Amino acid sequence: MDVPTTKASKAEADLVDIEALKAELAAYAEEAGGNGGDFAVRTKVLKHLKSVMREAREEAEELLFADGSGTKCAKRLCQIQDALIRAIYDFAVEFVYKVENPSSGERLSVAAVGGYGRGTLAPFSDVDLLFLLPYKQTPWGEQVVEYILYMLWDLGLKVGHSTRNVDECLRQARGDMTIRTALLEVRYIHGDAPLFKELVKRFDEEVIAGTGPEFIAAKLAERDERHRRQGASRYLVEPNVKEGKGGLRDLHSLFWIAKYFYRVRSGSELVKVGVLSRAEYKRFRKCDDFLWAVRCHMHFLTGRPEERLSFDIQREIAVRLGYTQHPGMKDVERFMKHYFLVAKDVGDLTRIICAALENQHVKIAQKLSRFLGRLGRGMARQRVIKGFPDFLIENARITVASDGAFEKDPVNLIRIFALADRNNVAFHPEAMKLIRRSLKLITPDVRDDPEANRLFLQILTSRNDPETVLRKMNEAGVLGRFVPDFGKVVAMMQFNMYHHYTVDEHLIHAVGVMAAIDRGEAGENHPLSTDLIKSIQNRKLLYVAIFLHDIAKGRPEDHSIVGARIARKLCPRFGLTAAETDTVAWLIEHHLDMSTIAQSRDLSDRKTIEDFARIVQSMERLKLLLILTVADIRAVGPGVFNGWKGQLLRTLFYETEPLLTGGHSQVSRDERVKSAKQELAEALGHWSAKERKSYLGRHYPAYWLRVPLERKVADAEMIREADSKKERLAVRVATHAFEGVTEVTVLAPDHPRLLSTIAGACFVAGANIVDAQIDTTTDGFALDTIFISRELPDDEDELRRGRRIADLIGKALRGEESLPATVAKKAASKARLKAFRIEAEALVNNAWSDRYTVIEVTGLDRPGLLFDLTRAISDLNLNIASAHVVTFGERVVDVFYVTDLTGQKIANIGRQDAIRKRLAKAVDGEEEQSAPPKRPRRAAAS
C-alpha cells in the first residue's frame, strides 16, 4: 500500500506501510544472499527502522497539532509500534532464523499487554510484550525473541517483556493481580494466531469467571493507594496526568473493572449493558481524548516519558493545545481549568460506574463496602428520615425515596446535603448520580428561595464537617449552580508555586480549617485563633467570609475589591443583616492586609501599627481578621503556614490591641525606652551597678523599643563575654521550635556590607533567611539578628546546623571565605524558575514609617537574590535598619527599612529613582558591583 500524501488521507491511514517496510528489509537480506544474520545487514536494517520510526513519529506529532485528538495520536503511535514489531518478527523468522519444517513446539505469538494492549501508546511509553509459547521454550523461539528484543532496545525503546506458555500465563494470573490486569487487555500483534486465541479463551473461562468481586476490590484498593502516593486531591496544581486522581489511570481502572465484571470488549458496550448512558459514555471518551492529547504533547515536548504536568511545561502545553489569554486569565490558567474540569468528570464517572456495580450486582456489596461507601450489614436496611419523607437512609447512606424527589421540590437539591451533614451519613452513589442529572432544576427562583439559603448557611456553618459536605456539593455540581460566582472559580488554577490547589478547592479547604479552629482542634498550631474564636460575637460571619474571600479570582480587577462587591450581593441572599454584610465585605476586602503587614513590615515601627489600627478600627474586626488570615494561609497548601508566620501574626495582634482598647499606646516614646531599660536592669541584677549603667548607654532607642526582654538579656551576656575576652566578633545561635525558625545573632564592627556578608554566608550554607533586624551600638559595633527557616526536628541537631552556619558567617567576616565567587558558583548550579515571568519592581516609600524609608522589592525568586540586593543597597550608601523576606512560591517580596548615612530618610526624588532602577537590575541579576562604601552606618541611631 502506498503511503498517502495529503494530510486528510494520512490522518485516516497507517503511518507505516507494513508491506512496503517488509519488502525494504528483505531487500537488504537478499543483497547478502539471503543471510539476514550478517552484522552488516543487521546494521542496515536497524538504521532503516530508526529512520522509519522517526519519520512516522514526526508525522504523528504533526497530525496531533492538526486534529487535536489525543486518542487518535495514541492509536497512531501504537500502529507504528505494531508495524515495527511485525516487520522485525518476519525478518527474523524469514532471513535470520528460518526453519523449513517447524515442529509443533516451534510456534510463537507476540502479544501486547498492559497499556500497549489497549491499542494506545504515548510517544515514550514502555512497550510491554508477551511472547507466548505453546509448551516450553525451544532454541528457535529463544533466538527469535532475543533478536526482536535487541532490535527494539537498539531502536531506543524501553521494553517490558515476559516469555511464557499458556499454562504459565494462567497460573501466574490467578496469583498476581498485576499480571491478571495486564492479560485482561492482551492484544494480538503477530505470529501464531491460534495460540493467542487459546490464551484469551482459557483466561476468560479459567481466571475471570466468578472472580469479579475479588478483582474489583483489588483494583479499587490499588487506586486508593495510588491516589495517596500522588496526593489525595485531584486539584493539585502540578498533577500527574497518568497516575494522579482524575487522570488516565482512573479511566483505565474504570474500564478494567467494567470489562472484567461485565465481560465487555469495548467501551461502547458499557452503554448496552446499562452501566453508562450515551451522554456519559460520550463524556468518558472526551475525557480520555483530552488526557491523551495532554500526555502525548508532554512526551513530544520533553522528549521523555514525562507524566507530571509541571509548571515548567504547562504554558507550552497550553500553547500547543491552542489556548489563548482572556481578560483576567492567562492561556495556561484556561488550559489548567479545562484539565481540572476533566479530572472532575472522571470522578463523576467513577461514582456512576460504582453505583451501577452495586445496584445491578448487590451480592458484591459486602466485599466492596470499604470502597463504595459504608453499606452496613445488609442491603435491605432502610429508614425514612423523620419529617423528610423524600429521603431515606440506607445502610448509613442518604438517598432519595423516588426519582422524582428533586422535580417535586428543587430545594431538596440543597436539603439532601443539609440532612447528610445533620445525620453524619455518606451519599448513596445513585443519589449523587440523580443530583448530577437534576442540576438544571437549580434556577434563579431556587437561588433566591429563603429556605434554600437557610439550609446552605446551615451547611456552611455546621459544627460537624462542612468541608466534606461542601466538597460533595461541588463534585456534584450543586455548589457552582447555587452560587454562580463560585461556579466561575471551579477548577480554576493560579499559575504560581504558592497556591497548591485550585481556587474552589482552596475555598472549601479553608472552610474546613476554620471549622477545625472553631472546634478547638487546632490549639497546638493556632493557640491565639483557637482562643479568640470563643469570644467573637458572630461566628457565621467568619464562615461566609472565608467561603467568599477568593471568589473573584480570575477577573481583571483586584479580587479583594470585587470579592467584597460580590459579598454585598450574596450576603443578603444568605439571610445576613446589613451590618453583618458590611463586616463580611470588609473582611474580604482586607483579607490580605494582616498577612502582608505581619510578614513584610517592621512590627517594632510605631507607624506600622498605627496605620494597621486605622484600617481595622475595632477589636472585633481585629479578632475576625486574625482568624480569617490564619485559615486562609493554612488552606493554601501543606507547609505554607508555619510557626514563624503565626508568631508574626500574634505580634501584630498584640501590638495593635492597645491602640484599639486605649491601653499603653498613649505612653510616650521616651517613657517606653526608659521602662525597657529599667526592665533589663532588673533582669541583670547579678551585674554590678557600674556594668549595668555602662551597658544601658550602648544602645539607641530603636533597640530598646523592638527587642523582647529575653533577647536583650542574651545580647547583654554575649556582649559582656566578648568584652571580657577582648573579641571583636561573636555569634550566638538559638532555636525556636514552635515558630519554626533558628535565630543567629552576630556582634561585629559596624560595616556597610555586614548584612550582605551574612546573607551570602547563609545562602552558601543553604540557610533561608526569613527576617533580619539590624542594630548599631553607640561604640561602633553592629548587632544583627537574623532568623532562618528551621530544617531539623530535633533541637540539638538544629543547634549544630546553626553553629555550622555561624562558623561560616565568622569566616566570611574575617575574610577567610570569598563570598562573591562562592555565591555565584552555587547560584549557577541551581535552576532558575524559567516557567514564570515576574517583572522586577522596587518601590521607595516614605509614608510607611516615621523614621525610615521603606524599600519594597518584588520579583522572581532566585538563588543568591538577598545577597545581591543587600550588596546593591550597600553600594547605594544606605543603612539597613531591618529586612523582611517573604516568599510566595516563585514570587519574592523583600522589604528593607533604610536611611542614608546620616540617619535620614531618602527624600531626594532623583536618588529614589536611582535606587529603584539599581535594585530592579539586582533582582534580574544584572547588578554591577562597585567597591564597598567606606562610611559607617548609623541606621539604628535614629
TrEMBL record:
GO terms assigned for molecular function: [protein-PII] uridylyltransferase activity; phosphoric diester hydrolase activity
Where are the residues of the annotated region Disordered? Answer: 921-942
Alphabetically list the UniProt keywords: Hydrolase, Magnesium, Multifunctional enzyme, Nucleotidyltransferase, Repeat, Transferase
Residue span, ACT domain: 743-820, 854-938
Q: Ranges for the HD domain?
A: 503-625
List the Gene3D superfamilies hit by this protein, alphabetically: 3.30.70.260, Beta Polymerase, domain 2, cca-adding enzyme, domain 2
Enzyme Commission code: 2.7.7.59, 3.1.4.-
Activity control, as annotated, is: Uridylyltransferase (UTase) activity is inhibited by glutamine, while glutamine activates uridylyl-removing (UR) activity.
**Region feature Uridylyltransferase, mapped onto this chain:** 1-384
Cofactor(s) the protein needs = Mg(2+)
Tell me one GO biological process term. regulation of nitrogen utilization
Role according to the record: Modifies, by uridylylation and deuridylylation, the PII regulatory proteins (GlnB and homologs), in response to the nitrogen status of the cell that GlnD senses through the glutamine level. Under low glutamine levels, catalyzes the conversion of the PII proteins and UTP to PII-UMP and PPi, while under higher glutamine levels, GlnD hydrolyzes PII-UMP to PII and UMP (deuridylylation). Thus, controls uridylylation state and activity of the PII proteins, and plays an important role in the regulation of nitrogen metabolism.
Record's protein name: Bifunctional uridylyltransferase/uridylyl-removing enzyme
Lineage of the species this protein comes from: Bacteria, Pseudomonadati, Pseudomonadota, Alphaproteobacteria, Hyphomicrobiales
